[in-house]
């Protein structure tokens, strides 16, 4: 169980990092406005 949780956490962290690198908050705010 702990191994699975660690793997899921790592995958989520990598996905979040890639999304942040591709779409910074400033760009998202500009698009929304």
Structural class: mainly alpha
Distance between the amino and carboxyl termini: 43 Å
Query: How big is the Rg?
Result: 14 Å
Give the biggest beta sheet: none
Mean pLDDT: 86
User: How many β strands by DSSP?
Assistant: 0
Q: Supply the number of structural domains.
A: 1
Q: Give the ordered list of helices and strands.
A: HH
How much helix is in the residues? over 70%
Strand content: under 5%
Shape: rod-shaped
Number of helical regions: 2
Task: Give the low-pLDDT segments.
Answer: none
Plain-language structure description:
The structure is a single chain. The protein is mainly α and 33 residues long. It has one domain (2-32). It has two helices and no strands. The protein has helices spanning 2-22, 25-32. It is rod-shaped, with a radius of gyration of 14 Å. The relative contact order is 0.11. The mean pLDDT is 86.
Quickly describe the structure:
The protein has 33 residues and is mostly helical. The protein is 88% helix and 0% strand.
Describe the structure using short key phrases:
33 residues; mainly alpha; 88% helix; rod-shaped
Explain the layout of strands and helices:
Elements: H1 2-22, H2 25-32
